[in-house]
Design a protein that fits this description.
19 helices; globular; Growth Hormone, Chain: A
């Protein structure tokens, strides 16, 4: 299985995978600080769920806006700098949230946190790709994804644990997470510079060997230094000439909208819709991400064996089915908890296939940009989901909101079918497939 494959990795690959996975844990902790305590925040700051959804959407919007700039920084200057910078800015954002006296400061903290988190995917994936080989990259991506789900699962546990101590509250939990992030930034940057060769840490150039598929035009070479304007124009042209990457970004957008709809409001659905006790509902979110982490590992193994379309299609049909069960309100509370866990986690089965597909469709010099495009899709979805579904909940209730989430999940399946009809599914996730693109 995935962890056994670590034995065959070279030392620098293990170091990179370990540090990048730790960074994934921290950055994903930053992303889900609000959902476990939306009810508490609504009461303390005297705002509605829709207003808090707007704050979560603002964080995701800023995260989206900074994806391509961080992708440019990673591809052109330094991946380690990008990784460290995102951890530091995100940690400062968490500290602002912890100290926020008003909703406006809460919003400012979310925006700062969004700027920081934007850098982690454009730094992570190029580091992982250059430190590994095509034969084990799917499993490596799945371990990275597993770590991300651990990060998603951690805040509810940390918040419940810290708030159970007399005199401590959610602010102390947020501050703890922010300090952990700042300390980890120092550790990760030091170890990467000290123990990882420059050939992995530095950006790739167009003259290097390519294992990816779609061609890249106008990428900076080792001997020429075009102007910033020319680099930006050529980057846009190259992106528009990569329809499969753009389609993958759209797929990520729709999938993210569905999954962030679940993540943002499943705790309040269980509390207010099913009468589940508050701490149990919060910990359900942790269990959901923990199960998702297991699905991520299984998906990594499957992505090295099978074509991506069936994995993505099947996982999101299952998401839709379990979310529709939640929306029906025919389940007893204990069964609703189980449905929430499965519906919010089974989509992770397809994540390594999507990530490895992005890698296969990339030349080495555009890895940061292409993973930034996919992450833009993810972040646009996470921008849309909290305010839209928050407004639907306020106006029409949980039944309509979660039925809408199920429809969006089915939209992922429809997109997969459309992509297969357009380009076919005759390529597998393999070296030979990449060469044929």
């Amino acid at each position: 299985m995935s962890f056994s494959s670590l034995r065959t990795l070279p030392r620098e690959a293990v170091v990179v995978l370990s540090l990048v996975s730790g960074s994934h844990v921290v950055n994903h902790m930053y992303l889900v600080l609000f959902p476990p305590i939306l009810g508490v925040l609504a009461t303390e700051f005297d705002v509605t769920l829709a207003t808090l959804g707007f704050a979560m959407g603002a964080q995701a919007f800023v995260n989206t806006a900074f994806q391509l700039p961080f992708g440019y920084l990673s591809d052109t200057y330094d991946r380690t700098l990008t990784l460290g910078l995102c951890l530091v800015i995100g940690g400062l954002g968490a500290l602002v949230l912890a100290a926020a006296p008003t909703f406006e400061w809460l919003l400012a903290g979310q925006i700062l946190l969004g700027v920081g988190v934007a850098g982690h995917h454009p730094a992570h994936y190029p580091l992982l790709s250059d430190a590994t080989t095509e034969t084990n990259r799917g499993r490596v991506f799945s371990i990275h994804g597993f770590a991300g789900n651990v990060g998603f699962a951690a805040p509810p546990v940390v918040i419940v644990a810290i708030t159970s101590i007399a005199g401590l509250n959610w602010r102390h939990a947020f501050a703890f997470i922010g300090v952990v992030g700042l300390l980890y930034a120092v550790l990760a940057v030091f170890v990467l510079y000290r123990y990882v060769p420059r050939s992995v840490r530095r950006p790739n150039v167009a003259g290097e060997s390519v294992s990816g598929g779609e061609s890249v035009s106008g990428v900076q070479t080792a001997t020429e230094t075009p102007s910033l304007g020319n680099r930006l124009r050529s980057g846009v042209v190259a992106l528009l000439d990569s329809p499969k990457i753009l389609a993958l970004g759209l797929l990520a957008l729709v999938a993210s909208t569905a999954m962030w709809g679940i993540t943002s409001f499943v705790v309040t659905l269980l509390e207010q819709g099913y009468g589940v006790e508050s701490s149990t509902a919060s910990l359900t979110l942790s269990v959901m991400f923990g199960v998702g982490a297991v699905f991520m590992l299984v998906g990594g193994d499957l992505s090295d064996r099978f074509a991506p379309a069936p994995l993505i299609l099947g996982s999101y049909v299952l998401v839709a089915a379990f979310v529709l069960l939640l929306a029906s309100f025919v389940l007893p509370p204990s069964a609703a908890v189980v449905a929430a866990v499965v519906g919010g986690s089974v989509g992770s089965l397809s994540t390594p296939a999507r990530d490895k597909l992005a890698d296969v469709l990339s030349a080495r010099a555009d890895l940061g940009r292409n993973f930034a495009v996919v992450t833009v899709g993810i972040m646009v979805g996470s921008t849309i989901a909290p305010p839209v579904f928050g407004v639907i909940i306020e106006g029409f209730g949980f039944r309509v909101a979660f039925a809408s989430i199920a429809v969006v999940a089915l939209g992922v399946a429809a997109l997969v079918v459309g992509i297969v009809v357009k380009w076919g599914d005759d390529y597998s996730i393999s070296e030979s497939a990449a060469a044929g693109e």
